[in-house]
Structures are given as C-alpha cells and as structure tokens.
Amino acid sequence: MDGFHDLGGFQGFGPVDHKINSKSYKPVFKEDWEHLAYSLMFLGAGHLNKFNIDQVRHAVERIDVRQHVGTKYYERYIIATATLLTEAGVITQQELDEALGSHFKLANPNHSNGRPAIGNRPPFEVGDKVTVRDEYVSGHIRAPAYVRGKSGVILHRTTEKWPFPDAIGHADQTALHQPTYHVEFRVKDLWGDAADDGYVIVDLFESYLDKVEA
Amino acid sequence: MSTSVSKTSSSTPGERARALFKVLNDKNLIPEGFVEGITDLMENTWDPANGARVVAKAWTDPAYRELLLRDGTAACEAFGYTGPQGEYIVALEDTPTVKNVIVCSLCSCTNWPVLGLPPEWYKSFEYRARLVREGRTVLKELGTDIPENVTIKVWDTSAETRYLVLPMRPQGTEHLTEEELQKLITKDVLIGVSLPVV
C-alpha cells in the first residue's frame, strides 16, 4: 500500500527530536493510557485470536492520512485494534461511540483482499544479485517503495520461514511460509546524489524478489 | 460566531484508549491481570540492560562473540532474552570501516526483549523518513560524528529479523570488568545511533 506510513526517503521533515543518551527510558510509558495500546492489541490477537500482527500493521496503514499525520504512535495502535475488533464483530462502532461520548473514528476499510505468495521457485543464495519486483500492491506489503525495481545483493537468507505478509495481513490463513533475505542496496542507487552515500539493508520476503542472472 | 470543532477532535487519545478498554471490559473479554501482566513485561522485563549484558559478554568471551554473530537467537536465548518481537535475532558487527544503525521505516519494529520497547524518537516520522536516505547527517545531528572513511549501513527492520548492534569495544577499557563494560552500552548504542563512550 503506497500510504503515508511508507516514509523511507520522504523529504520535508526536520531534525529528529533527540540527542544521544540524553533521555531516560524510564518510565517506559509517559502517559497513563499508553500501556493499553499493545496490551489490548495482544488481547485481540493472542488471547481472543481475532486477528494477527500483520493485520494490525495494515490497519495502522489504513488510518485516514490526515488523521494519521496528527496521531501519536500508541494512539494509532488503539485505533487499529478498535478497527479490527469492530470488523471482526467483537465490538461495534456504536459501543465505542457510547463509551467515548463522541464519534470514535476508525481506520478506512480494506481496499484489497491481499494476494498470494509466489511458490515453486528455487531459493536465492547469499551473494546473489536480486531485483525487487516492479509491482504495485494496494493491500499490505512489507517492501518499502524506495526499493521497488531496485537491485541489491543478498547478505543473508533466514533459517526460518514466515507467512507471506501480503496474504496473512489480510487474514488469509493459507499464506505460504517463506524465508526472508537481507538485501543490501547502495543508497546512491536509491536516491542518486540527493542522499548521503552508504548502504541500506532491507529484510525482504522471497516473493518480492527476482534473481538477476549473471 | 462559534468555531466548529470536528467530533473526532473533541476526544483525547487517552479517552479513546479508555473507551476501547471499557467496551471490552464491559463484555468481560479482558481476563483478570491480563493488561497488568503484559504491562509488566513491557515496563520491566524487556530492557536495554539485557542487550548491554549480551554485548559485554561478547566483548569479553570470544566463543560467545562467535555464537552471537553466527546465531544471534541462540546467543540471546542463552540469557533468556527472546520472546515477542525477538524471535529471530541478528547481531550487526561494527568494524573499523563499518557503522551499523537500525530503523523501521514502515512502523517501529524493534528487538523488544533485548533493547526494550522503542523510544518515541525512534518511532518518529523524522527518523523513519530520514535515516535510510541521509544516515550520516542524521547521526551527526543526534550527536555522533562518523568519519568519512567509515561506511554507514542502515538496517530497515521490514520483516521478522530483529537486530542489535554489536559496537566495537572502545580503547582504554582493558581493565574494566564485564559489569563495568555493561554501563557503556546504552539503548542508543544498541540501536546504533551512539558509540560506547568510556
């Protein structure tokens, strides 16, 4: 989904609000409601088993852009959890509105049912040159747009496999399990001279990649 | 003439969080102690002091260092530091010519059991947008000057791998004990934006 959340390389932001080692990380939660965000997310995902964490990520991505820009981090996970529990029929919009005493704005509906992984291909090897498939996906995807169509080199293939996000992020329980690859890209191959030189390594599912034949 | 205020802006994030809690609680869907249990993990169990122990051990024990770089999950599991958002761990080795830094440009993915929950700045739009594209500039603004002959490698946490940075052991720490070394390894050092300072 080419949404606002896909921020890598987005220009116009000011300095990061931090100086190294300047802040105490205790207490972990700065406001008295923040612990509810992940707690209720785990309640819905782990305990009630109504959705998975990929769906949570996608629900955050579905928050209306103007609202997304103005939200705090933990607020987005409250909205995502409320959205998914409403979509699952566990709670209703009316119940949320009544508990709040005003309208509880949820994320936008899904515009995609997701897509399956590409199976039946030989795995890639460390050192292989690969290209990120030049494809556009309206649903959930874990490839940032800044590597779309770009080429890099594989540094690592994971020894474990996980459900393909573009499928499981839409509750598709048949999602194929695949390894991911740490693919190293040269920054100048991504943004030319309008960037600092260096490398970015992105952790990409097998289905996002094609091997570049030598 | 009154200013119109949209209905959504009339509530605060905290009010919305408590409203969701109330709806679920009124339906008896929240088991006794559930929220408290997860909150305790987030506030107390997952902590950058865990990562500091891992790094200090790797600095003082070559066999453990080899394990950490070959199988980060096993090395962290040896301390009990695996769990949610820390199930497939890879340690990133800084060298005289490479500085590693971690980000999650798409959301906030972090190695919770080893680094603790991510801080506010790590989840900020600024860090997520800028680090991948201008890593050297961002590090400099944060207070870490990386020499030109050192390559910066930014690791975007976009799938299930969860990282920690294994920094170089600073000069002049030969006399320090493992416990003393742990104090040099802050949360920012584990994320990679800071170098350990004696």
UniProtKB/TrEMBL annotation, chain A:
SUPFAM superfamilies: Electron transport accessory proteins
Record keywords: Lyase
Principal EC category: lyase
Domain Nitrile hydratase beta subunit, first and last residues per copy: 119-210
Pfam families documented for this protein: NHase_beta_C (PF02211), NHase_beta_N (PF21006)
Catalytic activity line of the entry: an aliphatic primary amide = an aliphatic nitrile + H2O
Residues in Nitrile hydratase beta subunit-like N-terminal domain copies: 1-100
Record bears the keyword Ribosomal protein: no
Keyword hit for Transferase: no
Gene3D superfamilies xrefs: 2.30.30.50, Nitrile hydratase, beta subunit
InterPro entries recorded: CN_hydtase_beta-like_N (IPR049054), CN_hydtase_beta_C (IPR042262), CN_hydtase_beta_dom_C (IPR024690), Elect_transpt_acc-like_dom_sf (IPR008990), Nitrile_hydratase_bsu (IPR003168)
Entry EC number(s): 4.2.1.84
Molecular-function GO terms, alphabetical: nitrile hydratase activity; transition metal ion binding
Its job: NHase catalyzes the hydration of various nitrile compounds to the corresponding amides.
Family: Belongs to the nitrile hydratase subunit beta family.
Name this polypeptide is given: Nitrile hydratase subunit beta
Species assigned in the record: Acinetobacter puyangensis
Lineage, top ranks: Bacteria, Pseudomonadati, Pseudomonadota, Gammaproteobacteria, Moraxellales
Automatic annotation (TrEMBL), chain B:
UniProt keyword annotations, A-Z: Iron, Lyase, Metal-binding
Organism, as annotated: Acinetobacter puyangensis
Leader sequence segment: none
Record carries keyword Cell inner membrane: no
Chain residues that bind Fe(3+): 104, 107-109
EC number: 4.2.1.84
Protein name, per record: nitrile hydratase
Class of the enzyme per the UniProt entry, highest EC level: lyase
